[in-house]
Design brief:
heterotrimer, A alpha/beta, B alpha/beta, C alpha/beta, A: Rossmann fold, eight-stranded mixed β-sheet, 8 strands, 13% strand, C: alpha/beta, Rossmann fold, six-stranded mixed β-sheet, 14 helices, 19% strand, globular
Chain lengths: 341, 390, 410
């Protein structure tokens, strides 16, 4: 059979076997100007560590641009370049295409170089979704797009995005005297959409760096498998979610254990729930009530019990009614939806 | 020309954003009660604020409109009558995320100006922390635990009005207590808050700080390059890879210390720092791995030493550490330097143990904002008690 | 056999002539320049260049990554990043497509990315129209783009080669937009001399991203967020780079003439019948054809009219132009664009010409602005005669509007 996809070899990044086997070297280091307890900065650190030194990183506008790289100052050890808010897909594609052409034409030494473009939820789930989608349809280029999702436009002062959870307080959805719930949209299902919508994309995963080893191994797999890949990371944000930053790690665990944030990977079309999510789905552990998660965050401080119950019912539906629980929201029959007034 | 009054409020980004803007607004509104025009604004460059990283607000008031216009500044005034630090660990200095170099907390104070701080520390302890200033200034302490809350839920523990009451006493030419109380009632419709302001006004006292007092260190400065000295294409060199760590006693090398951003340090971002018990550490890696600031140097024997130029004091290391009291967050005011704890431990383990126990014992509880619903309601009565009893 | 091989080799080494459109001429330039990454997205009239590129790629004549993007914004962002990673790139658009890419166009100069792009000039929506107007390309005039208008397919090909050479010169590293009038140039075929690969290789060195290469062997951080402490210095660097373009352009045109034997004279603007002219007309792009025809006709009638065709709009050769124009008693600038609410409601070129004259030493002839040929409307010989009449009136000091619409139904 003819091979239509012409792809260069990738780096073979074996999974880290255990936390103690993780290399000591950092490729994204300290001195960034992020908030105390910034989980997105942690994602950058682990992403760079997982990818290793022969990597180029492209960063679209957002906290991980403005706070990490404030002119004359950087935290990157590996080469890094800014890209526009909606351009993570294009930045990855353009850089990968250049490497491919230059190496093929003998203008650059041949070697597999990782290309990673990251975007926040504003840049990825809102403005840049078209470009990311396009890139995931180009089978010939090795690149990873990593969406770090802190569930708001955090850098511009916490405005709601298509990835902000229902009802959350943001500077564009402040609860008032007449309207308690200003943000009435449910969070966009980005990873599911990317996996379902791009059948030739070989790897899509969700991660949370509270489970750092698994997250890094997911990144290593995405860079090894070949072709364009997509990872969606949920990053607790002490500023926008309004919690004491020492709880950052715990907040990620709560998101997973309450079932709000399912962990899974879709590899060559095969879905596999991972980590705690797998255990929840297998009935080995029980989903924690979302109340435990919501009450620890100031952004939900205005929620009434009805609001919390509604939130719970939506998460329950995701696990009990979706045809592919936690991933694809198709259902067998129409159901009514009654958000609190 | 009339008289111009400038007041700056230095605060912890996000945690004290609402507090600082309430103080700054109320200053202008109280002065307005006496017919003095004014403006209130945040330092634009500090926005977007980052949790914990110092930021500034300003209130500028003139005895008349023309004087006010003379004093209007976009970013910050050159000198101020009063500096308000709503967190005492800011006495170690101010380094905004958006600028370069470390600014002493008292830098903008006019000779004889007043530095107001919310603190439970003694004047002596506070003076030691602040950098020395060429001219004398006054220190005034509004007693209380620095008030921290998050972006969405405000902790109304009366810190705002107690500072306003203190200003009425310390700078009566700006406004009287009566004007402050009127402004408070207009703005917050709360007579109890007006009473808190009065008590604070009555009780506040000052200590004079002389040029030979304070931290003698010359604060870190940054020289801006000229346009033709900067690289083209907005490109700057990346950070070099790190290197192995040297044992101060055996001189063996091993482990790893990442190179760090030379132009931004977290010395003034921190309100707490971790102290590490190297004797009980089980080398589980979690503090090192989960630290968003890559602040832990890995020692040759595989221990983790929090490097103070990179630690922002978030407390994640303490939260993830599985061993009791192995990593403990301690109030930053307890420390006089940024030395390596591991090196101290290597040099004298017995002395380190005594030091460590002392630090853990004196740790004061601090919360960095919202932990759970109902937490502020539990904390506010204690602050109100201090406001009442002094 | 040996003889045939020699003939074939000779043919490879010598120029050949082909009947191609302006768009195709630029595609041929891409092939000769051995461009590495090209991105396409459809919009008329520029897309004809990409249709031809696609054939060159499928026939194996051009070895590049040829990417069809999902919109112009991505189209330009992809090549911007490819160029930062060391690839020679080509891209292009027209009308609102160019505007859709505006964010990418804005950031490219400060990144010092020497992208070469073609603008197939097209009227901006609304109303949607396919014909030429220059407003699309002119939107980048303040941003650090080099901007050039060509008027023949030959000039399109030659200018593309010159554009790569100048843009990729380490002293410059600025993007360049080559403007080609929709339809008149993009879609009409003309005989074009295609230079040999050998000559092109001699003229055009390989793109070397040098110290700005984004590669693990050259770890740099590119384009961190700036603030008031830095932005002026960064802008000043771009100012310096644009200031250097004129000299580098002159060098390139000189070298071009030596290698290819074709001369463009003054690189910045072309003068036609100006030696003894009383008055001159000015304009950009394919407007030159009806103007030149009309001038030949009017010369026979004894009117000493000349024409100055601006080629390089950025950088704008203000001093040279002012010196040139000081020889005439009046200037008529024909704009195929508009700038509503501008000084005297003139078009962009007229405003720039007045501005160039104002601060120059020497005589300042009166400048009358004309708006003509919008949306691709033909500018006819009688139109040019009417324009000329207005310019003569200005020379004689007769009062008249400083901006006049020509070829309008009124």
């Amino acid at each position: 059979m003819a091979t239509y996809v012409q792809i260069d070899p990738t780096q073979k990044l074996e999974p880290f076997k255990a936390v103690k086997k993780i290399p000591l070297e950092e490729y994204f280091t300290s001195g960034h100007r992020t908030c105390q307890g910034c989980e997105s900065a942690l994602v950058m650190k682990m992403m760079a560590k997982a990818a290793g030194p022969r990597t180029i990183v492209l960063g679209s506008t957002g906290c991980m641009y403005v706070a990490n790289t404030t002119y004359y100052s950087t935290s990157w050890v590996v080469p890094w370049m800014h890209t526009q808010l909606g351009s993570s897909g294009s930045a990855a594609l353009g850089t990968a295409a250049a490497l491919k052409a230059l190496m093929r034409k003998g203008k650059m030494k041949k070697e597999p170089i990782n290309v990673i473009a990251f975007c926040g939820d504003g840049g990825g789930a809102d403005m840049g979704v078209g470009a990311i989608s396009a890139t995931l349809t180009h089978p010939d280029y090795n690149c990873l797009i990593l969406l770090y999702d802190n569930e708001s436009y955090a850098n511009t002062d916490i405005q709601l995005s298509g990835s902000t959870p229902w009802g959350a307080n943001t500077t564009f959805s402040t609860p008032g005297k007449m309207k308690r719930i200003m943000h009435r949209r449910w969070k966009k299902n980005m990873a599911g959409m990317m996996a379902a919508g791009h059948p030739e994309c070989r790897y899509v995963a969700t991660i949370c760096m509270s489970y750092g080893l698994a997250g890094m191994n997911s990144i290593r797999k995405a860079l090894t498998i070949g072709g364009p890949t997509f990872i969606h990371s949920l990053d607790p944000c002490p500023k926008g979610w309004d919690y004491d930053p020492y709880q950052s790690h715990e907040m990620g665990e709560l998101a997973v254990n309450t079932g709000v944030w399912p962990l899974y990977e879709v590899e060559d079309g095969v879905l596999k729930l991972t980590g705690r999510t797998q255990q929840i789905a297998a009935g080995k552990i029980k989903r924690q009530p979302v109340r435990d998660y919501l009450l620890k965050q100031g952004r939900f401080a205005h929620f009434t019990n009805d609001d919390i119950d509604y939130f719970q019912s939506k998460v329950d539906a995701m696990w009990e009614k979706w045809l592919v629980p936690g991933v694809i929201p198709f259902r067998r029959e129409v159901e009514e939806d009654h958000p609190p007034a | 020309m009339g008289r111009l009054f400038a007041i700056e409020i230095i605060y912890r980004g996000i945690y004290q954003k609402t507090l600082a803007s309430r103080i700054s607004r109320a200053i202008v509104l109280a002065a307005h009660q006496e017919g003095k025009p004014g403006i209130s604004f945040g330092r634009y460059g500090d926005s977007p604020e980052r949790n914990g990283i110092p930021a500034k607000n300003f209130a500028i008031v003139g005895t008349d409109q023309e004087t006010l216009e003379q004093g209007m500044a976009k970013y910050e005034p050159k000198e101020v009558d009063i500096t308000i630090a709503v967190d005492d660990t800011l006495f170690k200095g101010v380094e905004s995320w958006a600028w370069y170099g470390l600014q002493p907390v008292n830098k903008l104070l006019k000779p004889g100006g007043t530095l107001i701080v919310t603190s439970r520390e003694t004047p002596e302890a506070l003076i030691k922390m602040a950098h020395r200033k060429e001219t004398p200034y006054q220190l005034a302490i509004v007693k209380g635990t620095p008030s921290f809350s998050g972006l969405w839920v405000y902790k109304d523990d009366h810190t705002d009005v107690r500072i306003l009451g203190a200003i009425a006493k310390l700078l009566p030419e700006l406004f009287s207590l009566k004007s402050v109380q009127k402004a408070i009632v207009n703005e917050w419709k709360d007579p109890v808050k007006a009473e808190s302001a009065a008590r604070s006004c009555e009780r506040i006292s000052t200590t004079e700080v002389m040029p030979n007092q304070g931290n003698p260190e010359i604060p870190y400065k940054f020289e801006f390059p000229k346009w033709h000295e900067m690289g083209e294409g907005i490109a700057i060199p990346s950070i070099p890879a790190g290197r192995a760590v040297e044992d101060p006693v055996s001189h063996a090398t091993g482990g790893f210390r990442p190179d760090r951003n030379p132009t931004f340090k977290k010395f003034t971002t921190r309100t707490m720092r971790p102290v590490v018990n190297f004797d009980t550490c089980i080398k589980c890696t979690l503090c090192w791995l989960q630290c968003p600031d890559s602040c832990f140097d890995v020692t040759p024997e595989g221990l983790y030493d929090a490097n103070m130029q990179a630690c922002c004091g978030c407390g994640v290391c303490e939260a993830v550490c599985p061993v009791k009291d192995c990593v403990t967050m301690v109030n930053e005011s307890e420390f006089g330097d940024n030395a390596s704890q591991w090196e101290d431990w290597k040099k004298d383990k017995a002395a380190y143990k005594i030091w460590l126990e002392d630090k853990i014992k004196t740790r004061s509880e601090r919360s960095h904002g919202f932990r759970y619903r109902g937490q502020y309601e539990e904390q506010i009565p204690e602050m109100l008690r201090i406001a009442r009893e002094g | 056999m040996a003889q045939l091989a020699t003939v074939l080799e000779d043919q490879r080494q010598t120029d050949e002539t082909a009947l191609i459109t302006g768009s195709e001429a630029i595609a041929v330039a891409c092939k000769l320049a051995d461009v590495d990454v090209i991105t396409a997205y459809p919009i008329r009239p520029y897309d004809t260049v990409m249709q031809y590129v696609s054939k060159l790629v499928s026939n194996g004549e051009l070895d590049c990554e040829y990417i069809v993007a999902e919109g112009e914004h991505s189209q330009f962002e992809i090549v911007k990043h490819a160029c930062a990673a060391g690839a020679r790139v080509f891209c292009g658009s027209s009308g609102v497509g160019w505007m859709y890419a505006m964010e990418a166009l804005t950031v490219t100069p400060a990144l010092r990315v020497p992208m070469v792009a073609m603008v197939g000039n097209r009227a901006l929506d609304d109303p949607g129209a396919f014909g030429v107007e220059h407003n699309d390309a002119l939107t980048v005039r303040d941003l650090g783009w080099q901007l050039v208008w060509v008027d023949t397919a030959q000039e399109a090909l030659d200018t593309a080669l010159i554009a790569y050479r100048v843009s990729e010169d380490r002293r410059i590293f600025l993007p360049c937009a080559i403007s080609c009038d929709g339809a008149f140039l993009t879609h009409s075929q003309a005989l074009v001399q295609i230079p040999s690969q050998k000559k092109v290789n001699e003229f055009l060195p390989r793109y070397n991203r040098a110290d700005l290469l984004l590669h693990p062997d050259n770890p740099i951080t590119v384009a961190p967020q700036g603030n008031e402490d830095w932005v002026m210095e960064i802008r000043r660097q771009n100012y310096a780079a644009m200031e250097r373009v004129s000299d580098v352009l002159r060098e390139a045109y000189d070298h071009f003439e030596r290698i290819f034997g074709r001369s463009y004279g003054n690189p910045f603007f072309e003068e036609f019948e100006t030696d003894d002219a009383d008055i001159v007309l000015m304009g950009m792009g394919t407007l030159s054809t009806p103007v030149k025809v009309a001038i030949r006709k009017m010369r026979k009638e004894g009117k000493k009219v000349g024409f100055v065709r601006m080629r390089w709009f950025r950088p704008f050769a203000a001093a040279e132009l002012a010196e040139c124009l000081s020889r005439f008693s009046a200037v008529g600038v024909v704009d195929r664009d508009y700038s509503f609410g501008s000084p005297y409601m003139s078009g962009v070129l007229a405003t720039e010409v007045r501005s160039a004259l104002y601060s120059a030493p020497g005589k300042k002839p009166p400048v009358v602005g004309f708006i003509a040929g919008l949306g691709g409307r033909e500018v006819t010989v009688p139109d040019v005669e009417r324009i000329t009449e207005g310019v003569y009136n200005a020379a004689q000091g007769r009062p008249q509007p400083l901006t006049q619409w020509i070829g309008l139904r009124e």
